Amino acid sequence: MSLVIQENVNLSSMNTFGVEAQARYFIRFSSKEELIEVFQKSVFDVPVKKENKVTRNASTKLPFLCLGEGSNILFVQPFSGVVLKNEIRGLEILKQTAESVSLKVGAGENWHKFVLHCVQQNWGGVENLSLIPGTVGAAPIQNIGAYGVEVQDVIEAVEIYDIEQKKFLILSKEECQFSYRDSIFKREGRGRWIITSVNFTLSKKPILRTHYGAIEIELKNQGISHPTIKDISDTVIKIRRSKLPDPKELGNAGSFFKNPVVTADFYSSLKQAHPQIIAYPEASGQYKIAAAWCIEQCGFKGWRQGACGVHSQQALVLVNYGTATGNEILALSERIRTKVFETFQIQLETEVQVIS
Ligand SMILES: Cc1cc2nc3c(=O)[nH]c(=O)nc-3n(C[C@H](O)[C@H](O)[C@H](O)COP(=O)(O)OP(=O)(O)OC[C@H]3O[C@@H](n4cnc5c(N)ncnc54)[C@H](O)[C@@H]3O)c2cc1C
């Protein structure tokens, strides 16, 4: 094994916003063995300086950033630590019955390719999550979701490498503490755990979920009354292509903000002040407010500020028209947050990981 340590690597083609950013050090790894080797590298050790003198044998550790396909991050300055590009691949069938199939999938696999493979095999559960960019390993981090499905619905366990204990651990689904666009990986695991593989259980007798968003209408338009898994996947792909900008053509990272979840009392006061407000009741009794609607009401849909702006069809998506910097995009997001707060007293939370 010979890991290559690159220095001062340009990351602009490795983030879907397409913003300029540099990694002080950059290492690709494609197996668990290579990952162990990565953390034995002295590149992480920074000699401690006291009164401008380097203290012998004393060092601190450089931070690391595990990078998937860069579709949920915004770089706002050069990353002064070590960027680790996860390229662990592979799909293994662990168990199969007449009802279900259990799989272990390498964290560096492309999510959409994995979905297409499942669709082709007629394994149900991830078809509504078609065309979401990124890697399998990043999917549990924000519990990716779309069209009424979240990845937690099909996850059994997640394998991680804990850099402090220097060992691999398996987290059960419960231990991952999944919730709306959130998990333990965004909290305790941040800067400490690297996801190496994810175990899924998919159904051979799936229950299709067609009631969310425009799926049902689109199927009807196509004259499909008894859809297959492939019909759902094709329909989701079609809807997403018509609504969301392709990062290859227009830099973006999908939804920049989460949909805020508020109490029933607060929702009722919002509804009085803004009768048109769009919200969805949650099982908890709370309400999920459509952040895109709030942003649109504040006049930002299609707004452009220099080289960045808000997408003309989807107000949750901030876009880079070509030369925007991470800081310009962040400044626009702050402007939106301030205006939404002034108008609705709602504090928008960022879904995209801002790397500073
Ligand atoms: C056009 C578009 C549409 C999108 N639509 C959706 C959608 O419908 N639903 C949705 O939920 N998301 C959506 N997203 C967001 C994004 O696709 C997901 O969050 C995806 O899971 C990010 O994967 P990635 O490999 O690109 O992660 P990256 O952007 O590379 O990383 C994201 C974060 O995860 C960390 N990370 C990545 N891999 C690992 C690992 N193996 N171990 C530890 N930490 C890791 C990174 O350090 C970073 O903090 C969309 C994005 C785009 C550009």
Features:
356 residues; alpha+beta; Uridine Diphospho-n-acetylenolpyruvylglucosamine Reductase, domain 2; Uridine Diphospho-n-acetylenolpyruvylglucosamine Reductase, domain 3; Uridine Diphospho-n-acetylenolpyruvylglucosamine Reductase, domain 1; five-stranded antiparallel β-sheet; four-stranded mixed β-sheet; 31% strand; globular; binds flavin-adenine dinucleotide
| Straight-line distance between termini | 32 Å
- Which quaternary structure do these chains form? single chain
Structural class: alpha+beta
Q: Describe the largest sheet.
A: 5 strands, antiparallel
Overall mean pLDDT score?
Answer: 94
Here the CATH topology of the largest domain equals Uridine Diphospho-n-acetylenolpyruvylglucosamine Reductase, domain 3
Major beta sheet, strand line-up: 8-9-14-12-13
Give the percentage of residues in beta strands: 25-35%
Overall 3D form? globular
Could you characterize what this model shows?
By secondary structure, the protein is α+β, with helices and mostly antiparallel strands. It folds into three domains: 6-86, Uridine Diphospho-n-acetylenolpyruvylglucosamine Reductase, domain 2 (2-Layer Sandwich), CATH 3.30.43.10; 91-243, 2-Layer Sandwich (Uridine Diphospho-n-acetylenolpyruvylglucosamine Reductase, domain 3), CATH 3.30.465.10; 251-355, Uridine Diphospho-n-acetylenolpyruvylglucosamine Reductase, domain 1. The chain is 21% helix and 31% strand. It is built from seven helices and 22 strands. It has helices at residues 32-38, 111-121, 215-221, 229-243, 264-273, 291-297, 326-344; strands at 6-10, 22-29, 45-50, 53-61, 64-67, 73-75, 79-86, 91-96, 100-106, 145-146, 149-150, 155-162, 167-172, 193-203, 251-255, 261-262, 279-281, 287-289, 304-305, 308-310, 317-320, 353-355. The protein has a five-stranded antiparallel β-sheet, covered by helices on one side. The chain has a four-stranded mixed β-sheet with strand order 1-2-7-5. Strands 15-21-20-19 form a four-stranded antiparallel β-sheet, covered by helices on one side. Strand 3 and strand 4 form a beta hairpin. The chain is globular, with a radius of gyration of 22 Å. The mean pLDDT is 94. The structure holds flavin-adenine dinucleotide. Flavin-adenine dinucleotide binds at residues 16, 65-73, 86, 107, 132-135, 137-139, 141-142, 144-146, 194-195, 244, 247, 252-254, 353.
